[in-house]
DNA sequence: GCCTAACGCCTTTTT
DNA sequence: GGCGTTAGGC
């Protein structure tokens, strides 16, 4: 028997033991959310629930696999028959079962973003829209808007009016393209990510026996990261639960960071309304971070427009003061980050150290520096494994093995053949589909390389098991890869080996293809001790002893596009909150003074991120990079700051007023009116930062950054 | 008609 | 470094 009382706090216990009705757990960052789910899983099984009746929906398949395996360890028995995964993978699996019964949507090939974009472009071209119009939205924008309008369930012109006013003149054309896109997909048996959810909803609504069977099977439904579900996902939960199913939703409204994808915080806030009688449990005690780190996190969240009814507290009152390091530029930042990592490495293993950033490309300079320094790292987010060109190529061959009518796959598989382009591929696909052997033979005779490809595909089809197919495809592709990527095929080679590794776990081609598109598994778990580089989004739900945040300047974090959109700014703020709360012991923030502008080939001054400006000056140790490359300490945390008192007997800690050093100015205060100035010797310059009490940092064209005492500057 | 190479443009987050 | 457009070749 598991000693729940010993291992859980009172609130967690309440959630774990709850029975007989809907349950909503509002779990602040680091409050033991995963632990609560894991123990509840164990508790259910211990209490006699058949694992087969449990459905665990999470944000990534990795998360559900980890929770199930932790619960297994706890229980000492298998949970294999429990179903865990993402909404999308669950939907796909159920739709396949339905298809096996001859019902549901026709096709069952799941397409990824790149495929969806290609089909969108075809729709646009077929309709002859936007020809020669340079400002016509491109396929990525079109696809983004089409998907957003479905996710947010807004009519397309409505969505464009709200989120992309500048495209309003194109709204009508985009609507036509969206319609055509849907038809093209349906006609080719393809499902995009959004279709998976809507098709499952349709199936549940239209096929009563199907719905009843699923309801009967999944009596216990648990949904993690509920704040990031969209409207249709919430309806799916309701449809699956039925009247008397037991539903547990877990999430944190303050960590909602997927609104851009249609996530609707209203789902979590409105849960008690949709599931009347729901019990609500709040977890607010943080077990992860030290108080100084929580002070910074709380300060960032405190400025949110939408007020969050929470303030994390911890008993880890002692700890290193978070640092803010102002580097001269984003280029020099990489070096300072590397230094800091070397320092931290003396205390923590590499895999407990993570560098977080807003967007994938921001880590490129650091990746270079790390490679040069020979420091092993693993990157999450940004370009995904299955999106790498060589992986997509291999997958294209496999898709053709299964379905020779897949025009998109033909395009990739024949990319190395000169004289065979998009139109030809479309024809080949059509002829294959219609079984027009005559036309195909003619083509094969005309282009020997095409003939070779056809023979190869036939040979692969003849192989019995999936493993043999996969290794043969990789073998065939090998020389093509060398030919197509002469400069970096060795790196891609490693990717193919990884793909083979991943494939080793599969018996079925369809499963393999769908899984790679739905939630690509990383290769084998890191045998080496590796540093972690990750986007903040991909770091969701994770924790590290030491966290380094880079590029904390306006236009990078928050992103430029969010600056003049209040709602987007709010999401960026929550994202920043998520980033800070990943840290257990050590938090280092980096903010370059200048950013390299690739187009202008020059450095331009950057403003400190407004979120960092909201942090009381005294909550951070501030360092500044000096010309020589060293660091000069600029300010320190005043020792008078008392840690937030942990609530004593109060059963619901709710909002603790905390002790804010109210009088201390925020970092960079006064920056709000940055402007131009003139110096007697350096001439006119742009003020980059105000350095209390009486200095300014100024960027003088031709002279670079200087720190000048106020008295010597003439304000313009 | 179809394909390729060359040129100018702007970079978000993810199932 | 990728996308879309355009010019020019087969």
Strand order of the largest sheet: 11-12-10-13-14-9-17-18
Rg measurement, Å: 28 Å
User: What structural category characterises the helix and strand content?
Assistant: alpha/beta
Strand content: 15-25%
Biggest sheet layout: 8 strands, mixed
Helicity range: 40-55%
Low-confidence stretches: 637-672
> Could you say which overall geometry the principal axes of the C-alpha atoms support?
globular
The counted number of beta strands is 23
State the distance separating the first and last CA atoms.
74 Å
Explain what the structure shows.
The chain is of the alpha/beta class and 716 residues long. The chain has 27 helices and 23 strands. The strands form five sheets. An eight-stranded mixed beta sheet has the order 11-12-10-13-14-9-17-18, with helices on one face. The chain has a six-stranded parallel beta sheet with strand order 3-2-6-7-1-8, sandwiched between helices. Strands 22-21-20-19-23 form a five-stranded antiparallel beta sheet, with no helix packed on it. The longest helix is centred in the middle third of the chain and has 19 residues, at 466-484. The radius of gyration is 28 Å and the shape is globular. The protein starts with a helix and ends with a strand. The relative contact order is 0.11. The model is unreliable at 637-672 (pLDDT under 50).
């Amino acid at each position: 028997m598991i000693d729940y009382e010993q291992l859980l706090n009172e609130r967690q216990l309440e959630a774990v033991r709850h029975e007989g009705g809907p349950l909503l757990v509002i779990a602040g960052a680091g409050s033991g959310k995963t632990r609560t789910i894991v123990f509840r899983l164990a508790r259910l099984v211990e209490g006699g629930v058949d694992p087969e009746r449990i459905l665990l929906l999470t944000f990534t398949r990795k998360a559900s696999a980890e929770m199930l395996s932790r619960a297994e360890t706890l229980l000492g028995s298998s949970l294999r028959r429990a179903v865990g995964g993402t909404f999308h993978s669950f939907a796909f699996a159920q739709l396949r079962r339905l298809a096996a019964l001859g019902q549901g949507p026709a096709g069952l090939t799941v397409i990824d973003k790149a495929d969806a974009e290609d089909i969108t472009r075809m729709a646009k071209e077929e309709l002859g829209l936007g020809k020669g119009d340079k400002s016509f939205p491109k396929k990525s924008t079109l696809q983004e808007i089409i998907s957003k309008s479905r996710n947010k369930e807004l009519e397309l012109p409505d969505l464009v009016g709200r989120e992309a006013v500048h495209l309003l003149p194109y709204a009508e054309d985009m609507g036509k393209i969206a319609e055509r896109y849907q038809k093209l997909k349906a006609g080719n048996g393809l499902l995009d990510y959004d279709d998976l959810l809507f098709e499952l909803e349709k199936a549940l609504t239209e096929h009563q026996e199907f719905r009843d069977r699923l309801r009967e099977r999944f009596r216990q439904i648990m949904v993690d990261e509920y704040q990031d579900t969209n409207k249709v996902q919430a309806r799916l939960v309701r449809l699956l639960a039925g009247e008397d199913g037991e539903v547990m939703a877990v999430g944190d409204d303050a960590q909602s960071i997927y609104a851009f994808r249609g996530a609707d915080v209203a789902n979590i806030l409105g849960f008690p309304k949709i599931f009347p009688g729901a019990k609500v449990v709040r977890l607010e005690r943080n077990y992860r971070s030290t108080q100084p780190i929580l002070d910074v996190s709380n300060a960032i969240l405190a400025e949110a427009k939408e007020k969050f009814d929470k303030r994390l507290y911890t008993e880890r009152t002692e700890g290193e003061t978070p640092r803010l390091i102002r580097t001269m530029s984003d280029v020099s930042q990489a070096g300072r980050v590397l230094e800091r990592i070397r320092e931290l490495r003396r205390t923590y293993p590499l895999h407990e150290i993570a560098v977080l950033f807003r967007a994938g490309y921001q880590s490129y300079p650091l990746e270079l520096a790390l490679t040069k320094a020979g420091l092993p790292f693993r990157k999450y987010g940004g370009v995904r494994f299955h999106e790498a060109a060589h992986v997509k190529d291999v997958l294209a061959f496999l898709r053709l093995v299964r379905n020779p009518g897949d025009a998109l796959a033909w395009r990739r598989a024949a990319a190395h053949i000169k004289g065979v382009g998009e139109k030809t591929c479309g024809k080949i696909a059509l002829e294959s589909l219609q079984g027009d052997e005559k036309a195909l033979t003619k083509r094969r005779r005309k282009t020997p390389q095409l003939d070779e490809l056809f023979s190869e595909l036939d040979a692969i089809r003849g192989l019995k098991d999936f493993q043999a197919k996969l290794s043969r495809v990789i073998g065939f592709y090998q020389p093509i890869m060398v030919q197509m990527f002469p400069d970096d095929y060795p790196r891609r080679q490693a990717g193919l080996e990884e793909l083979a590794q991943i494939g080793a776990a599969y018996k079925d081609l369809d499963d393999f293809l769908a899984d790679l598109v739905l939630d690509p598994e990383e290769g084998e778990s890191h045998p080496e001790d590796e540093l972690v580089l990750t986007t903040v989004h991909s770091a969701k739900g994770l924790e590290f002893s030491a966290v380094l945040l880079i590029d904390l300047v306006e236009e990078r974090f928050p992103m430029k596009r969010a600056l003049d959109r209040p709602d987007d700014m709010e999401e960026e703020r929550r994202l920043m909150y998520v980033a800070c709360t990943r840290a257990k012991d050590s938090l280092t923030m980096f903010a370059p003074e200048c950013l390299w502008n690739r187009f202008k080939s020059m450095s331009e001054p950057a403003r400190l991120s407004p979120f960092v400006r909201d942090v009381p000056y005294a909550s951070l140790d501030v360092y500044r990079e000096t010309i020589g490359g060293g660091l000069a300490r600029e300010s320190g945390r005043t020792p008078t700051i008392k840690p937030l008192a942990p609530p004593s007997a109060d059963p619901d800690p709710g909002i603790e007023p905390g002790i804010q050093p109210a009088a201390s100015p925020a970092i960079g205060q006064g920056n709000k009116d940055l402007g131009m100035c003139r110096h007697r010797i350096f001439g006119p310059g742009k003020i980059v930062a105000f350095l209390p009490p009486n200095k300014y940092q100024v960027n003088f064209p031709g002279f670079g950054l200087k720190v000048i005492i106020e008295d010597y500057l003439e304000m313009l």
